[in-house]
Structure prediction request, 767 residues.
Amino acid sequence: MSMFDIGNSPDYTAYLALSVILFMIGTMGFLLRKNTIVMFMCVELMLNAVNLALVAFGRELGHAGGQIFVFFVLVVAAAEVMVGLAILVAIYRRRLRVSADDLSNLSG
Amino acid sequence: MNIHAAADIPTSPADYSAIAPELAMLGTGLVLLLMIALKRFKNDSWYAAIAAFGTLFSAGWAIALWNAVESGEVGDDHVRFAFSGMVVADGFGAFLSVLICLAVLLGILLSDVYLRHENAGKAEYYILLLFSAAGMQFMVISNNLVMMFISLELLSVCLYILSAWHRDRSDSQEAGLKYLLLGAFSSAFLLYGIAFLYGATGTTNLVGFEQYFAENVLFSSGMVLLGMVLVVVGLCFKVAAVPFHMWAPDVYQGAPMPVVAFMAAGAKVAGFAGLWRVLEVGLSAYELDWQPLLWAIAAITMLVGSVLAIVQTDVKRMMAYSSIAHAGFILTGLVAANEEGVRGALFYLVAYTIMVMGAFAVISLVARRGEQDTSLEDYRGLSRREPLLAGILAFLLFAMAGIPGTSGFVAKFAVFGGLAGAERWVLIVVGTLASVLSAFFYLRLVVYMFMEGLPLEAKTPTLSRLPVPGVSAVVLAVTVFFTLQLGVLPEGLLDIAGRATLFAG
Amino acid sequence: MGDYLGIVVMAVLALSFVGVSLGVSALLAPKRPTPEKLDAYECGIVSDQESVERFPVQFYLVAMIFIAFDVEIIFLYPWAVRMRALELFGFFEMALFVVVLLIAYAYILREGVLDWAPKRTLDRETLMQGFRVEADRAKAALSEQDRGRKSEAA
Prediction:
């Protein structure tokens, strides 16, 4: 058996474990980082963890549904990021800073 | 191998009548987009009028769908699945579709006044409002988690932009960004939950879940439970239930008033509809697992919302916590998980939509240009200056507090009746306690308006009379009328809501 | 209750990871905050100024619109693979999808998002003036050449 044998590809739980780790990293990053753009990137990381899980499940189930769902997730993520960047640009033009700490007009 | 073989794809005939209200809403939005692209009206109110007309059209389709469901035309058991089970035509969806149309109509009227007043008008505003409403309508009829996710995102992304709409107030942009960041964060949780449910059952169709759990005995349901918890967390974020409510006060304070009113009403309707469909249709086999979860969320949501509202000094923030508390009361109807409880929750959603629209109509008139006067102090002695406006606001606040004779009382009574039927006595006690606490801060605002004198260092300009545009007067008249009418004669709506509870029969 | 074990284990692991990492850094790290340290981390370079002050917003708009249209194309691929199997129904659904995108495109065009440069105003008068200047210049060049030839001949 060579190491390139496709029959030896890892169990889908390995992909699932990777997905959980990615999701955790994204969550921690979102909660701990201050730069808004980095926070966006963390949300993207979480969504990609979801995509990985969906594809892994779809393959395990022998089912195209998971992969099709990934398409929708990608499109929605792109739309969210676009809106986020648009609002960020608007804020940046007013204040010239985009750190979450600077967004403190509203607090309570 | 021929990959173009036709045989293996089931092509069910497209059943456009099942999504006619949503198509009307989206179509109106697209028509407005084309109109902006081709030629412009000078006056934005024209766009508002077209949007309102499209909403009426959508409501007409939704009512027609309701009648078809009632008369049994849609199929056996008053339910018909369309687009390969992606959406479902039933009484629950049609009822909430009409409610969303009502929220959009009142929202358009409020927005027209507000945007002209604030000089922030652009026709695109109404397009976003309509698309967001279409997302809500799709959410209440979706029978598939993929569909539910996309509708939720459609409604949320439009609301993010609307929250950041006011270019001259940096608070508004800040609110939009915060809403977007936390909304995207919660979407990720919802999606992860959907992924786990898909992995456990091999489908994303809610009826498919039901069948799967009926036919299979799971060796371990850890993945289902994990998925269920994540989905509940994601949806509770959207309806601002504690402990996932952190975004609500900031967004409510910063976003433009009509958007806040629309968001408070519409996003709640969509969120609760999604939650109820997932739990009752998809995960009814796990009722014993999700009921304690919802029980805890409902109890702390009512208490925390009511307690934190007491310490607020800004009326918009106070309304945010009030909205959180109301979310808790509506959740109790789902905890009861019986026909009376869900009927109460549906009635509550209607009553709350009407009350919150009316309250924000007054608040936005009192706040004046730039949303300056929103602190409690600005309401001191309002009854001297504006007896009628103060009286209307007081009436709506009484309704929110649940004083008998108003729709708020009937709504609370109805959900608690459901809880009594399910013998959830502790939650009734918690809910009554929260009602009493919340009555305190509503009444405090009333006291500020009626009992207190004018502030000593009264700003002279604020003593001038507030102009009340005709459109606002219409909104106020409608909301006061229905709040009173549903408080005195609730049987009609309760009966209709009782037939839309998703329980067969 | 055994079903919940996985969730509990995951929650405990996640919480303890947060607790341990935050706790250790709180205990061990010396605290000497300066404004630079509290600032957002930008690849280790102390930000003595905000990045480039003026930047063309046009670029952002076009980039965002590119992303939107680029990503939407993803939905055409599954349809393209199964086009024949989906028959006319699939075709009309995709046509509807493309029409919706086209309406958005018309709106973008109309709003002038894709106009990179400021518009050139080419009315008839300036055009003719431009021609006249060019013609004068050409005439001058020709007569210069003529003079040169004449002087050569002489």
